[in-house]
Amino acid sequence: MESDSTAYNLMSLQQDFPDELPSWDFAEDVLGGFDQFLDVSSFSQVDESISAVRREQSPAAAEPAGPPDRYQMPTSSSLRTRAGPPALVAIQTARSNGKIGKHSRDSARTESLEAQVALTAAQVQELQASQRQLEARNALLESVASNLTSDAQEASVAEADWSHLPASASDQQRTLVLSVTDGVDLVRTVQDISRMPFTEFVSLYTAYTRKIRQCLTQIAQQKGSTSDTMEDLHKWTSEVSAMLVFLAVGNLRNYLSFTSSRLDGNIGPSVSQLPDTFYQDFVTRLHLTEAQKIDLMHLRRLFYAKMGALKRERKQLLQHVPAGAAQSTLDASTRLADITAIAQQLHDNSAAEFKTYMQFGSAYRRGILTLKQQAVCTVKGFPYIPDKPRILEILAHQRSEMPILVLSQPLGIDDFEHHTNWQLVVNYLRMITKDNLHLYLPLTSSS
């Protein structure tokens, strides 16, 4: 197509040619840099061949006027006179055009050098900014490493929301004591709770809700809080929270099924079908302080940034999965090794995503909310277990925060920094102890 178009254009140009072509001036290109050779005023003689050519072109002038012995060679001044003023004008014009062309090229060369200097300076500034970013990252890593090896983690009770539970002396599996049943303490392992049928789970969760409601009623009637009532409230709230965590760790499918259903045995919408008005009323009943709202929004930003980074990592891993059929036995063996390695990385990615969600829930309920607010979540949400991310979305909408789709993007920060920022939440969980579990612990000040 391009060659046909070119041929057509050439034919059009041939048809439009005038009888006399214009006189294109190439003096600037040809004579540039040769100014010193254009001045002929100092020439005193002209080459003999030039004189011979001029005599042949002008026969009349070639015949001497007098005898041959009196004939004189033309001088340079006479040659200039014969050439006439137009020749001098042409030479002077060419010389002037050459000077202008040289000046233009010098200016262009200067501008090019200035542009290169500016580009180099910008690259130096970018490298300096990268160096400062790396230095800040190294300092943050050193801080994280020191926190990981600190003695404070021994007092933690909220790293996955269950580390405070006692371990069975006869079994290394983690166990949970459910004391909600009257006169009988049920000792359950993670495996026991993972196999729990839905009816048993509903029965236990409903019993815990009644106990917690009784404590809140007593506190409201006494216009205060006695130590015994607060101790009972702490026990019931901790046990029901731990039961949910055990179920999530032991059987995630049952956890998602149980927590998304109505828990009073009646027919009704599922948790995902609850209207926004339900969650708006729920957030109002929590009576969150402004500091708590700020911390919840900060937790939300960190959570979705971390989840977005994990999602991008998973997408990159899937792109490296070999496609097509193997061409040989060696190719099949290599592919099997690659797929095995990628499968393990995908498993680690899913485990990190699940752990991040559990840490998010622990920071929300066990750190930012007080003990009374945790109890309100259980009582006011019943017969449902309100979805924590949706609670934060209602609050985010009220405060005109950025949507999840935006928070899940890199936002100018690499994924390594998103993972490092989430480590601040992990360190925050290590600050939660049995002594401060009932209090609100600021998240933003700790980070």
List low-confidence stretches: 5-74, 76-84, 136-172
Beta strands, count: 2
Percent of residues in helices comes to 55-70%
**What's the helix-strand series?**
HHHHHHEEHHHHHHHHHHH
How many H/I helices?
17
* C-alpha geometry: elongated
Specify the structural class: mainly alpha
Calculate Rg over CA atoms.
44 Å
Largest sheet, in brief, is: 2 strands, antiparallel
Key terms:
447 residues, mainly alpha, two-stranded antiparallel sheet, 17 helices, 2 strands, 64% helix
Produce a short descriptive summary:
The protein is an all-alpha fold.
What does this structure look like?
This protein is an all-alpha fold and about 450 residues long. Helices cover about 65% and strands about 0% of the residues. It has 17 helices and two strands. The protein has helices at about 1-15, 25-30, 50-55, 60, 75-85, 85-150, 190-195, 200-220, 225-250, 250-260, 275-285, 290-320, 330-370, 370-380, 390-400, 405, 415-430; strands at about 175-180, 185-190. Helix 11 packs across helix 15. The longest helix is centred in the first third of the chain and has 64 residues, at about 85-150.
List the helices and strands and how they pair.
Elements: H1 2-15, H2 27-30, H3 48-57, H4 59-62, H5 76-83, H6 85-148, E1 175-178, E2 186-189, H7 190-194, H8 198-221, H9 227-250, H10 252-259, H11 276-286, H12 290-319, H13 329-368, H14 371-381, H15 388-398, H16 404-407, H17 415-429
Antiparallel strand pairs: 1-2
Helix pairs in contact: 6-17, 8-9, 8-14, 9-10, 11-15, 12-13, 12-15, 12-17, 13-17
